Amino acid sequence: MTKEIFINENVKGESKEVKYRICDIISAHDGRRTWATINYLKGYAIGLLMQVTGHTKEETFLKYVNASNLQKAKKLKELMNK
After folding, report:
1. What is the pLDDT of residue 19?
2. Domain total for the chain?
3. Rounded to 5 degrees, what are φ and ψ at 44?
4. β-bridge pairing 14-21 and 4-11
5. Are 16 and 9 in contact, with CB atoms under 8 Å apart?
6. What would the pLDDT profile of 20-72 be if each residue is shown by its tens digit?
7. Cβ contacts of residue 62 below 8 Å, gap of 6+?
8. DSSP letter (8 states) at residue 38
9. Which of 24, 51, 65, 79 makes an SS bond possible with 37, Cβ 3.0 to 4.6 Å?
């Protein structure tokens, strides 16, 4: 997480490459959302995941997980076939 990366930024009207450590630009929220997405795609129960993330509506949780529409559709099809 201490690997350095370069990001192009506009600094005073000029495009410059700015160096950052990954740990300085990734937040705890990024980790929480990634965890929710990975476990959703693994097939863990949405209700259980929602308890951990604090979501009260399934619709909101599904918008929150960072999965593509295709991934979500495949997961829905799996659940409907059980």
Report:
1. 92
2. 1
3. -65, 150
4. antiparallel
5. yes
6. 998 888 888 888 998 998 898 888 999 999 999 999 998 899 889 877 777 77
7. 46, 72
8. H
9. 65
Residue-level length of the chain: 82
Please give the residue range of the domain that contains residue 22: 4-80
User: Tokens representing 27?
Assistant: 């937040």
Is residue 56 within 8 Å of 48, Cβ to Cβ? no
Q: In sequence order, what are the beta bridge partners of 7?
A: 18
First-residue to last-residue Cα distance in the chain: 39
82 — pLDDT class (breaks 50, 70, 90): low
- SS3 assignment, position 58: helix
CB-based burial, 47-57: b 16+ in 10 Å, e otherwise:
eebbeebebee
